[in-house]
Amino acid sequence: MSESFPRLSARTRRFTLGVPRGFTISPDGGRVVFLRTRSGTDPVTCLWELDTDTHVERLVVDPRTLHGDEEDLPPEERARRERSREAAGGVVAYATDTDVTRACFALSGGLYVVDLATGQARKLETPGAVIDPRLSPGGRHVAYVTGGALHVQDLATGEDRALARPESETVTYGLAEFIAAEEMDRMRGYWWAPSGDALLVERADEAPVHTWHIADPANPDRPATAQRYPAAGTPNALTELYVLGLDGSRVAVPYAEEYLATAAWDTHALSIVTLTRDQKTMRLFTVDPATGASTLVREDTDPAWVDIVTGVPAHLDDGSLVWVANGDGGHRLFVGDRAVTPPTLQVRAVLDVDHDSVLFSASGDPTEIQLWTWDGHSLLPVSTRSGVFSGRMAGGVGVLTEQSLETEGVSTTVVRRDGMAVPIPSVAERPGLDLRVSIGRSGRRELATAVVLPSWHEQGSGKLPVLMDPYGGPHAQRVLNRRGAFLESQWFAEQGFAVVVADGRGTPGRGTAFERAVLGDLATPALEDQIDALQGVAEQYGDDLDLTKVAIRGWSFGGFLAALAVLRRPDVFHAAVAGAPVTDWRLYDTCYTERYLGHPDEQPEVYEKSSLFADAAKLDRPLLLIHGLADDNVVAAHTLRLSSALLAAGRQHNVLPLSGVTHMTPQEVVAENLLLLQVDFLKKALGVAS
């Protein structure tokens, strides 16, 4: 390679640039619209279209020709990209009409509509910077948010009017509030009626939410940024729903629960899904758009918490409800009132409903994510090879994405009605690493574990220092059967480590009992399972692992787990790098934290058990804390307060503050050097020669 892995990984946004994504299939299956950058190092995302009959791919929109300044983004759009972990620029999101003849998108705050047949794009006049534009189903109007107001513009006449304006500076119409975007995977705040004459719109008022201040000490001339942050135990934003008609009508849709999980409006029903604050009760309602009256369709309860699953509610052509709920220990697909999947198949998401067929992703083995369909009569596997799959389906045509340990990158294929496969090429860069990953089960709980060895290491030739490389917390996995999951781990292995990646209790894909084992304690089970996995791997690779030199690194929850490891189990872990760690769960947000630990006023002892502060005096191992000072998700106060506690206890440690860096660390130089600095720290801490 002409570039080092750290530099190339940083330039390519961890090899995501150049990968096709954001697929939309036309109703007749004849065209597929998608997003992709023009190369693996180009951060500007373009809009493309593939003709499934001719196999011809066409560039529809290149933002460079529209003179979009990628740095000129409104604050709301920057926040939306942070919540969605969007690392690229350009046309990063778009929406089409039902027939997929037009698309709209925001670029540098401007509103654009493009004719997909001709590629002719035009910029529309708007009174301010645009967020989340969406075309009406018939394509006559485009709705968007600017300045917290929801606007609708008639594409034929150019008439632009605000259907709802914020009553104060803390109010927005049509935008998902922080908790919905960060913790519920709901990135939108309004939904068009199928008829195109009305919208369901969220009104969010952040007035009750406490104000925090995110400062940049490296630039003392700049004022701190005020941010409303709903920390555990504190008030959330007040959310309300209204049906707003293009004729100026306004109908309230009342609901009693704390959270609006999602909404959907199709030809069968206007549906809303609500969740109580303790997240033990989820309710699905249908709404009469004329009156706002709601009818309860189903209620799901769980003594721990009810999971939010993307893609539902939805309906088959005959009106049957498509839903996902827990049953008999598994996440199951329901059609109507009947569970159509076994409890051993853990449904991850509903990806599409095409007339009477449901496309969904699910795991039998937690290290695999496979595609399945329910065709109204039986379950059919769509993906048959080992790996991680996703996809879309419309008009009898499917788009499948595939990742595996055997192949590099992401493979995308369009499957036509006649079964012919048409590839959509990826132009992503190749990492240039010789991957040496073994996935299996380890420890008493048979945890999904990956062992990553240096490509040059001969087993039994000598013992290597060990690097545990987990996320280890709820709602996310590290051990999946795809090469992209282990690129950084392999690079660390090439520096002379045996890297161990383990998914402990709380991680998804293995059933509800396994996930709910962290209820009331985010620390003990997670740490126990990392040790369990390490001991299990040591039994299998006894001649290759040096257990007198064990380090651990992680980011976010993984950072919490890394710091926890050296504080509570220094007999096992000899050094740690904790990136953006949660150190006190009272400082993290309501929805995520209270799901697992409850309300801090009601269970303060639970929060103490999962806090790092009481363990500060125990530190006698090298610890490097890394934190972006602009992080608005896990704020830098987590690291700074832990550092203060360590200092008060007289415990030596290292802190690396990153000026202007958020939770994602997207800056190229920062991302590159963070890897190099971590290796240097870990080698010195373990006494390993460079």
TrEMBL record:
Q: Name one GO biological process term.
A: proteolysis
| Superkingdom as given in the UniProt entry | Bacteria
Q: What InterPro entries does this protein's entry cite?
A: AB_hydrolase_fold (IPR029058), Peptidase_S9_cat (IPR001375), Peptidase_S9B_N (IPR002469), Serine_Prot_S9B/DPPIV (IPR050278), WD40 (IPR011659)
SUPFAM superfamilies per UniProt = alpha/beta-Hydrolases, DPP6 N-terminal domain-like
Q: Which residues fall in a compositionally biased region of kind Basic and acidic residues?
A: 75-86
Domain Peptidase S9 prolyl oligopeptidase catalytic span(s) in chain numbering: 488-687
Annotated region Disordered: the residues are 65-86
Start and end residues of each Dipeptidylpeptidase IV N-terminal domain: 107-372
Pfam families with a match to the protein in the record? DPPIV_N (PF00930), PD40 (PF07676), Peptidase_S9 (PF00326)
Give GO terms: molecular function aspect only.
Answer: dipeptidyl-peptidase activity; serine-type peptidase activity
Q: What is this protein called?
A: Dipeptidyl-peptidase-4
State the organism named in the record: Nonomuraea polychroma
* Taxonomic path: Bacteria, Bacillati, Actinomycetota, Actinomycetes, Streptosporangiales
